[in-house]
């Protein structure tokens, strides 16, 4: 297959056609294989484009504004020299911020406080439950 048509992209990513068209026309997320060139021509999207589009849709569905998405992409392009940020990084949405998961597992804000590392606290609920069960067994079961 040489690429994906707009109709296929809509079916595969869930991005409505009007939004797909708007993103392509504004330069936000353009097809990498072929841009529309007048009436009757077709845009062709690569598989990498599909990943970026679905990621953008998921971020929008999580409440990140288009302006916020643009800021995220610009920050990642500027600071990480990433050509295709929505394909090349792992992102986490936390309320009104977008965090990038770095190679060492650290989190960095890329929207609200770009470049600032975020304190992460991970609770191993399985371990908490197991320890509590053991304490209850030891202390209260005779």
What does this structure look like?
The chain is of the alpha+beta class and about 140 residues long. It has two domains: about 60 residues, Multidrug-efflux Transporter Regulator, Chain: A, Domain 2 (Orthogonal Bundle); about 80 residues, no CATH class. The chain is built from six helices and four strands, in the order H-H-H-H-H-E-E-E-E-H. The protein has a four-stranded antiparallel beta sheet with strand order 1-2-3-4. Strand 2 and strand 3 form a beta hairpin. It is elongated, with a radius of gyration of 21 Å. The termini are far apart. The model has no long low-confidence stretch (mean pLDDT about 90).
Return the structural class.
alpha+beta
Q: Indicate how many domains the architecture comprises.
A: 2
What kind of sheet is the major sheet? 4 strands, antiparallel
Separation of the first and last Cα atoms: 69 Å
Strand content: 5-15%
Query: What level of helicity do the residues show?
Result: 40-55%
Radius of gyration: 21 Å
Mean pLDDT: 90
Q: Say how many strands there are.
A: 4
Strand-and-helix sequence, N→C?
HHHHHEEEEH
- Order of strands in the sheet with most strands: 1-2-3-4
**Molecular shape:** elongated
Helix count, DSSP H or I runs of 4 or more residues: 6
The low-confidence parts are none
């Amino acid at each position: 297959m040489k690429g994906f048509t707009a109709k296929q992209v809509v079916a595969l990513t869930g991005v409505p056609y009007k939004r797909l068209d708007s993103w392509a026309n504004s330069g936000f997320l353009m097809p990498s294989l072929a841009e529309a060139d007048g009436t009757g021509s077709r845009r062709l999207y690569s598989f990498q484009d599909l990943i970026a589009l679905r990621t953008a849709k998921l971020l929008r569905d999580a409440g990140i504004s288009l302006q916020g998405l643009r800021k995220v992409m610009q920050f990642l392009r500027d600071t990480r020299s990433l050509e295709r940020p929505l394909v090349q990084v792992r992102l986490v949405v936390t309320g009104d911020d977008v965090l990038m998961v770095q190679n060492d597992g650290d989190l960095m804000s890329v929207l609200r406080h770009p470049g600032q590392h975020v304190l992460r606290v991970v609770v191993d609920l399985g371990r908490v439950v197991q320890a509590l069960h053991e304490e209850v067994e030891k202390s209260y079961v005779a």
